[in-house]
Specification:
13 helices; 355 residues; 7-stranded parallel beta sheet; 40% helix; alpha/beta
């Protein structure tokens, strides 16, 4: 069982939540969080980490010198460090490519030199945009729904499975993550590194600093709470586009299991998400936010979709569920109420970031 863990992106939403969760479960473990603090709000997590005796090191995975095997001689590396925005790939390709691709090479070199196990957080964005757009959909009053009849493999009423075709373009962000997955597989074969890849859908929960292109459910609830305007962008501007959401606690319970059963799951590439039962359209999210906050805000309508956007993504997590018995527990309403309670509790420090 691993006793010394390095969490890359450790001051971010997933990384810090994971570090805190693991430290509470395994107080004797040494946990090191490593982050470049580029994302606004990540600095708020440093006191939370230090209060639990978790080490924090400021560094950048783009620099191999920052990942010195002499300093980071660890048992397990958990990589949550990516630039997670599709839009950033269009606006600033250099940073996305260097962080997500060069960064992965540096991480793999550290794993090779220390023989550490690697748990890698990938993304549903490895699946190609045009193929996802060509899924047969049904338009219901409040959402799009996946039709019964499909011509593409890996699509069903459960969502997108690992068999979904990978041929075609997927955004620079998605490509860097898919390339990282391929490099991980090569390092597994060449150097005997143990590795698990989780292709995560939308993760949400407290301490996520939600933005338009990453953390949409926090963004939506915060906009209602602080009474800021929003927009339904693309697909008729009606808010019917759908995502499944996975509460951070549900992801953490899966990662706990994976750390305890690493060699059984070594080499797996797994879709991880909330699934069809935990999916919402933007319109449905608005109605839930109105109920939870008691506030209604103006929502504009824009016909044209943003570059790289898709009308629906729902994760089919059947493979990981059948292997491990893991299933998400937190439903969308519970997840949004949890975010609401967090905003109320920390409103003073969150308002400059979330409003």
């Amino acid at each position: 069982m691993a006793e010394k863990i390095l969490i890359l992106g450790g001051a971010g939403f997933v990384g810090s939540s994971l570090a805190i969760n693991l430290k509470k479960h395994y107080s004797q473990w040494e946990i090191i969080c490593f982050d470049n603090l580029r994302r606004r709000g990540s600095e708020l997590n440093i006191p939370r980490l230090k209060n639990l005796g978790i080490d924090f090191i400021h560094g950048d995975i783009r620099s191999s010198n920052d990942l010195d095997p002499g300093i980071f001689n660890v048992d397990t590396i958990i990589d949550c460090s990516a630039e997670p925005s599709v839009l950033a790939g269009f606006a600033s390709p250099q940073y996305v490519l260097q962080t997500n691709l060069i960064g992965t090479i540096n991480v793999l070199e550290l794993a090779r030199q220390t023989q550490a196990r690697l748990l890698f957080l990938s993304t549903s964005r490895v699946y190609p945009i045009e193929t996802l757009k060509s899924i047969n959909l049904v338009q219901l009053p409040t959402r799009f729904s996946i039709a019964v009849e499909q011509t593409i493999p890996g699509v069903s009423h459960l969502g997108i499975a690992e068999e979904f075709p990978l041929q075609s373009y997927r955004s620079l962000y998605g490509t860097t993550k898919l390339a990282s997955e391929m490099l991980i597989e090569e390092y597994r074969q060449a150097y005997g590194i143990q590795a698990i890849v989780n292709r995560c859908g939308v993760i949400t929960g407290p301490w996520q600093m939600g933005k338009v292109d990453q953390g949409v459910f926090v963004l939506w609830l915060a906009a209602h709470y602080f009474e800021k305007s929003l927009s339904y962008i693309g697909y008729g501007g009606t808010g019917r586009q759908v995502r499944d959401l996975l509460h951070i606690e549900d992801l953490l319970s899966l990662i706990n299991y994976q750390l305890e059963h690493f060699s059984e799951l070594d080499g797996d590439v797994l879709n991880v998400g909330g699934g069809a039962d935990n999916s919402l359209s933007l319109l449905e999210t608005t109605r839930l936010c109105e109920t939870i906050t008691g506030k209604s805000i103006p929502i504009k309508s824009e016909e044209i979709a943003r570059q790289g956007d898709i009308p629906i993504y729902i994760t089919d997590s059947s493979k990981i569920s059948s292997k491990t018995g893991w299933k998400p527990i937190m439903n969308p309403e519970k997840s949004l109420r949890d975010i609401y309670n967090w905003i109320i509790e920390y409103e003073t420090i969150l308002k400059p970031i979330l409003s």
